[in-house]
Structures are given as structure tokens and as C-alpha cells.
């Protein structure tokens, strides 16, 4: 099966190669000369326009003198880059998929996220993200790396060509206290400001409305200009990218269903404001 440029695992591979070179401090032209390849070829691989084979990836990693552990992680991406679905099990797999998430966010034209219990990642403040990761028991160094990454990820919403984000959020996310006092209040104030952006739609789904597809769990739907849509799931110790046409179509139906039972944009912004006022009065 040929590898497809633009698939989540291919995006993660290109990001890993780019990061490995930057960490090494080697310029792309220098690397190209060292490998006797064209600078354009290296650029295509790092930008995800083309997918290198395993031999080329191994050659690059050798030239960059990558550590054995990181080398094996990147080679694993290369060996399985042609697989359409990407499932990881175990906490070590989540950071690997996070690279795919970041690349999908950078290249997507629109994102729809259903988040029943927490504020979606692209709308989180750094303190809110930190509180979640610390509660999850991650080492502090890993926590801070995730917080820094989260801050840089949010730039896709405010850059010169911001993507469209449709965030459908369960009402419990407004009321569940996350982190020390003040963290939740700051988070809701930030959410209120983000909801005003022309490229961001925030809708809350109230409780006590009966069953709907969102009860099956959170998901993210990425849409791209030149490649097929992808659905992503991330749970406590597993994650998956699913590009299968049938599954994507079913989740598009779920998006429509959840959108119909959700509050409107104005009503949702009013709900955020009411919740902020209640917290300020305490």
C-alpha cells in the first residue's frame, strides 16, 4: 500500500524529521549536501508534500546522530506510514500522536470538536491545561512541555489565515472545577473572548435532552483542502486517527445531530457570561 502524503501518520513523520534536524542545529541545505540529495527533496519531506521511504528516513537519522530511542520512534512512523488507520495503546503512544494532531491543526481548513466534559484544547488557557496534566500524574517536565505546545497550537486560531473552529461543548465543562481557585474563572473569560472571533463558533449542549451520538465520546473532525477528512479520538491511554470514508461520514452525521440539539451561538455566549458572573459573586 503506497504512503499517502497528508495522512496523519505521514504528517507526524514530516514533523518528526523537521524537529530532529532543528534540534540537531543543522540547516536543510547542509543536510541535503551531506546526503547528496537536493534541498528541494528534503523540503518536500519535511513539509509533508512527499513521503520518504524507510531507507531515506534511516539515512537522515544517521546523519543527524539521533538518539537510539528517538530513532526507533521515528522509524516506527516510517515503517507504518502507509497504514490508513492509526491506533496507539498505552500512554507512550499519545505523545507520538500529538505530533499528528499538531500537523493536522496546522494544515486543516476547519475543525469540528465535540468535547462533552472539558474545554477543547485549542480554547484552553495555559493554567487550565497545566491543571489537567498535573492531575493526570505526568512528570512536571512533561507537563510544562504540553503547556508550551498548547500555547503554540492556539496560534492557528489567531494567525493571518486562521482556521475555522466549531467547538461543541457539553454543559458540564462550564461547571466542573479544574485547578486552583481562579483558574476556572480565567478559563471562562478566555473562552468568552475566543467565542467572539469570526472564525470560532462555540455551542453548548445542555443536559437532560436524552441520548445523542455525543454520548459515545469526544472526537475531532479535521477537514483539509487537498486531502480527505480525518476523525481523531484521544482517550486516557489510547488514541486513533480514522480516515475511512464510511466512518468519517457517520461522524459528519453526528456533528449535524449534536449541532441541532445544541444552544445557538448567542445563547451559548450568554451562558458563559452567566457562569462567569456566578463565579465572580462567590
Outline of this structure?
The chain has helices at 8-24, 28-35, 39-47, 54-64, 68-79, 93-107, 126-135, 140-153, 172-175, 183-194, 245-261, 265-281; strands spanning 86-89, 110-115, 164-170, 200-205, 219-223, 230-234, 238-242.
What descriptive keywords fit this protein?
globular, Endonuclease, Chain A, 12 helices, 282 residues, 434 Repressor (Amino-terminal Domain), single chain, alpha/beta
The coarse overall form would be: globular
Q: What does the largest sheet look like?
A: 7 strands, mixed
Mean pLDDT over the residues: 87
Order of helices and strands: HHHHHEHEHHEHHEEEEHH
Regarding quaternary structure, what we see is single chain
Domain unit count: 2
CATH fold-level name of the largest domain: Endonuclease, Chain A
The count of helical stretches stands at 12
| The CATH architecture of the largest domain | 2-Layer Sandwich
**Strand order in space, largest sheet:** 1-7-6-5-2-3-4
The first-level CATH class name of the largest domain: Alpha Beta
Fraction in helix: 40-55%
N/C terminus separation: 59 Å
Proportion of beta-strand residues: 5-15%
Rg: 20 Å
- Record field, number of beta strands: 7
| Fourth-tier CATH superfamily name of the largest domain | Endonuclease Chain A
Based on secondary structure, the structural category is alpha/beta
Amino acid at each position: 500500500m503506497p504512503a499517502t502524503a497528508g495522512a496523519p501518520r505521514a504528517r507526524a513523520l514530516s514533523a518528526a524529521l523537521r524537529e530532529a534536524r532543528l534540534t540537531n542545529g543543522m540547516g536543510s541545505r547542509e543536510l541535503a549536501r551531506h546526503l547528496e540529495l537536493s534541498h528541494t527533496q528534503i523540503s518536500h519531506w519535511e513539509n509533508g508534500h512527499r513521503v520518504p521511504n524507510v531507507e531515506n528516513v534511516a539515512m537522515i537519522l544517521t546523519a543527524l546522530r539521533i538518539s537510539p530511542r528517538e530513532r526507533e520512534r521515528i522509524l516506527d512512523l516510517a515503517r507504518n506510514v502507509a497504514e490508513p488507520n492509526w491506533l496507539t495503546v498505552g500512554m507512550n503512544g499519545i505523545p507520538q500522536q500529538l505530533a499528528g494532531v499538531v500537523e493536522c491543526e496546522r494544515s486543516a481548513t476547519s475543525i469540528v470538536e465535540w468535547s462533552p466534559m472539558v474545554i477543547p484544547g485549542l480554547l484552553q488557557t495555559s493554567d487550565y491545561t497545566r491543571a489537567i496534566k498535573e492531575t493526570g500524574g505526568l512528570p512536571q517536565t512533561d507537563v510544562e512541555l504540553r503547556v508550551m505546545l498548547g500555547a503554540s497550537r492556539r496560534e492557528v486560531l489567531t494567525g493571518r489565515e486562521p482556521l475555522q473552529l466549531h467547538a461543541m461543548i457539553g454543559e458540564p465543562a462550564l461547571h466542573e472545577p479544574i485547578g486552583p481557585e481562579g483558574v476556572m474563572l480565567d478559563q471562562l473569560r478566555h473562552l468568552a473572548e475566543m467565542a467572539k472571533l469570526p472564525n470560532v463558533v462555540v455551542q453548548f449542549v445542555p443536559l437532560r435532552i436524552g441520548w445523542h451520538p455525543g454520548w459515545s465520546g469526544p472526537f475531532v473532525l479535521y477537514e483539509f483542502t487537498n486531502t480527505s477528512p480525518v476523525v481523531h479520538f484521544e482517550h486516557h491511554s489510547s488514541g486513533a486517527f480514522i480516515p475511512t470514508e464510511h466512518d468519517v461520514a457517520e461522524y459528519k452525521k453526528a456533528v449535524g445531530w449534536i449541532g441541532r440539539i445544541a444552544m445557538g451561538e448567542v445563547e451559548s455566549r450568554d451562558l458563559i457570561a452567566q457562569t462567569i458572573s456566578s463565579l465572580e459573586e462567590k
